[in-house]
Design goal:
264 residues; TSP-1 type 1 repeat
Length: 264
Amino acid sequence: MRSSAEFAWWLLVVSTLGKNHFLVSGGCSGRCCRGRDISCLTTDWRMDRVYGTCYCDEGCVRTKDCCFDYFTECPALECALSDWSFWSGCAKPCQPSVRVRVRHVERQPGNSGEPCPILEQRAGCREYRDHQGQQCGLLSGPAFITSMEFGKRRPKHGSYGNPLEPGFCVEFTLESRTQYCTVENRPHTHWMRYITEGFKVCVACEPPAMRNNSGSCQGDGQESDKEAVLHWQAVGNPRCSGTWKKVQKTQQCSCPPQHSFVFI
């Protein structure tokens, strides 16, 4: 009889300890660790339905040995970013150059949240006045072009609120391009990948690239015949350049977005 009573008592103790151990040690509650931390472990059911050692660190997602409640107890914290700053001015006036805008991290990602995206953006640009505020001279040379997206942000009215000239469009057939148009992988150069030989492209000539009273943009080919091979260069990557032939001048551009550009 005593033996049975002792056995029952020990069974109650083991059962109680087992329950307390489960409540204290099991799962990821209160133990979410950054990075890969092999000490951030416990004993419980894993996500693959195997009972045993499981982890509550960020690395467990990659190694697939998280505890069953990892995503509930350790929800992903996404990267929090500030707004973009205003674009800087062009680095150099009167020539193709680069402008920059930045943002900063307000909260780092956690618990396997996605890494923060880029914090700096660059874009091709060109200032039409020098440091003294004087109008830059009209230079001869290749056409400098960039994505049509840049043109969407151009002002439509002058300093006194008067509407600017609407400009025009020139269609070209691309004859050649350098290999450097496709090897660049920076955000402000992605548009250059669509510059492909044999395709027709549209290039808008608008103020301020269209100089006052000139009615033309640098390299637009208005003075050239259709057989003339003209040169162009991408703003933002001076090694991306090539040749094209003029097809016609139109009032508006009608090419697909990836084949639509603006003179700079």
